[in-house]
Amino acid sequence: MRLLPIAPLLVLILALLAGCATVTKVETGEQAVGARLVVRLEGPWNRIDAPGMGPAQVWTMEGLPVDQLLVYPGIKNGELVHASTGGSAKTFAFRSSMQPHEIVAMFEGMMTRDGSQFKLARLEPASFGGGKGFRFEYSVTRRSDSALLSGVAYGVVSEGELYAMLYHAPRLTFFPRHRGRVEQMARSAQLRAADAAALKASSGGGKRDCMRNPVTGMWTGC
Amino acid sequence: MRRSLVAMTLVAGIAFAPAFAQAQSMNLAPGFSNLPKDATVVLMPADIELFSLSAGGVPEPKADWTEAAARHFRQALLAHNQKLGLRTVEVSEDAADELAEVNTLHAAVAQAIAVHHFGPLKLPTKEGKLDWSLSDAVAPVKKATGARYALFSWVRDSYASAERKAAMIALAVLGVGVAGGQQVAYASLVDLETGRVVWFNRMARAGGDLREAQPAAETVGSLLYGFPVAK
Amino acid sequence: MPARFARPAPETDEGGLWAIMDREERRLRRSPFALRDAKLRAYVQEIACKLAGEHCPDVRVHLVRAPLFNASMAPNGMMQVWTGLMLRVDNEAQLAAVLGHEIGHFLQRHTLERLRDAKARSAFGQFIGLFGVVGALAQVGALAGMFAFGQEHEREADTIGTTLMRNAGYDPNEAWKVWANLVLEIRARPGGESASPLFATHPPAAERQEALIALARDAAAGGATNEAAWGEHVAPYRHEWLTEEVKRGVPEESLALLTRLKERSPKVAAYAWARGEVYRLRAGEDDLDRALEDYRAALAAGGEPPEAHRGIGLVHRTRRQAAEAKASFARYLEAAPQAPDFAMIKSYLEELSL
Description:
The complex is a heterotrimer.
Chain A: H1 8-18, E1 22-26, E2 29-33, E3 37-41, E4 45-49, E5 57-60, E6 68-75, H2 100-111, E7 117-128, E8 131-141, E9 148-158, E10 161-170, H3 174-188, E11 190-191, E12 211-212, E13 219-220
Chain B: H1 2-15, H2 24-27, E1 40-43, E2 47-53, E3 59-61, H3 63-83, E4 87-90, H4 93-98, H5 100-118, H6 139-145, E5 149-160, H7 162-173, E6 183-191, E7 197-205, H8 213-223
Parallel strand pairs in B: 1-4, 1-5, 2-5
Antiparallel strand pairs in B: 2-3, 5-6, 6-7
Chain C: H1 13-30, E1 34-35, H2 38-52, E2 60-64, E3 71-73, E4 78-82, H3 83-88, H4 92-107, H5 110-115, H6 118-128, H7 140-147, H8 151-167, H9 175-187, H10 206-218, H11 227-247, H12 251-264, H13 269-282, H14 287-301, H15 307-318, H16 322-335, H17 342-353
Parallel strand pairs in C: 2-4
Antiparallel strand pairs in C: 1-2, 3-4
């Protein structure tokens, strides 16, 4: 029996069979993901939990076979960005020194372990979580069923940890339908200071906002 | 391997519910009750795969069975639809080539419905409704066929080989129950004007045999139980 | 040559297999993994046709986007050629060697015999695309062992392949080189030769190279390689295939391959650039120096991919050599205004200017 790199969907199916997968509603409004990341939702999402799904939270609107939003709440140096797999399958770990290019290559490697194909469409600097981050667009040809997916992602490295959101869905109908909310969620993302995680996030008073002016290209407040 | 895992999912989903069609509302999209009498339905090429289960339970694809099954299924489907008084058209192989991406899209949506609507992993945002739509991705199907609705079907069917049956008997003697073959399937009706999945049924059971004409007709009958045709 | 095969009755063993193949061929035709460039496909089809002689009408070539060395032929005439193979052969004759070998198996119905075994059927199915996913392409090697043709069949296919090559006007002395080159790559693997994905359906026996040399010796001298025509046809795809090779993330093997390609064709900037990428990404001791050397070789050869400038820029940026980095990034942006990462590289440039 060969070992397949376990994508969220397959883990889900196995967990489902074992009776230990759950779905939770993620409500409109502010949502904390992990200790520091906070996003604002303008409509509810569904979050799927199952043991062995990996370090990202997995959200969906239409169901995992259709769309997936992977939310990474602070990946530490050396940590894998996917569930650990037994055997000799290649693994992808984050290093704090990684540049945006390398982080994209890491996610690309993760998504192509099963023979799927990945193509980068765009990579640009972007503010994310109030820091100097990056945004990328991509397309994926899924090996298992030849589905053609489009994707958009945001990421930032803060205090040596990676915070990111990756969303992909079929390029027909579903990606266009939901991408707007994903972009809005990403733009709303904030990172609390690590020791303030227990405090309610304020609307920014006293916080310096590191932002990039899209017109002049200048970074301010960093 | 993915296909058999999907099959297992459908089975697992079914384990929480009876094997036949649910209460009508679960199979129907909100606001849809039945097809208009003169609506044309295009029968998309059925995705069928038959397996033989080895003694150890490993499924082995059997192309000659699948070939026979595809023929019987198609005949049975045409006959059943005629009985229901439906106007149907079929898709040529060449046209089907052009529609590959829509087919793939629908298959992914159908999996999602199987896992998240009929299975135990319901999505709160769907509020318990059959609420999935492909929107205008289905336009090429409408254009190519002139139909108003499309019927998709998918069947994965496994049969215990002789060795498997022997193993089952042997294990039963030892008090161990082991599954024989299983038939998992879905049928999905899509409105080609809106892209909405208006009716969906899925089935998982231990019986059924698509390799012969008569039992194939019975399978189709079960699969299309509750098909929303105007009375 | 045997007479053309009639389609077997569907209830027979063989008929059942044809049915599977036919269905898979339909799936392949519709798959986004198929490379549908009409010109390139027609070119490879023509070569296969020349080799197959009377059986030409029964052979249907499908090009598949996959960065591994593989070609296979199913009993129903469906032939697959993976882009990894097309990257690795140096000329038409070498491609003909592989295709001729596959046609040899086809003519002698070796595949059919092998497919009577369930495990072999499963393994072969995965190359053909039959039973769903070839998990990670890296697993292909493990399958090779399960499917492999016996030595007798391999010898037969080599003999027939050599004859077909010669009859079609190709130089049979190119055949052994294909395997020799592959062996080079395999030996570069840290784990060694076991279960290499590169051999897919044909794990090599040591004697095959010797046998192929002997067969070439016995065949009449002469024959074409058509290297120029080959180069012309694959040139538009080289960049894409090299990018896929680099993305495999197996630097030792890629270095063996790219070193061979670079040394063979020093004027092709893309090979030097690709090897530079492998060094830069591996980033081991001295690798960044090697990367710079290769990028510069690409520039010297002329017609370099814009990414060569980006590569130089990224190395200098890593070393905090701002002036050099800026200069190279600027050249990249100038050469590739439509690049997907234009905005990102532009921001690197701006940062370095602060």
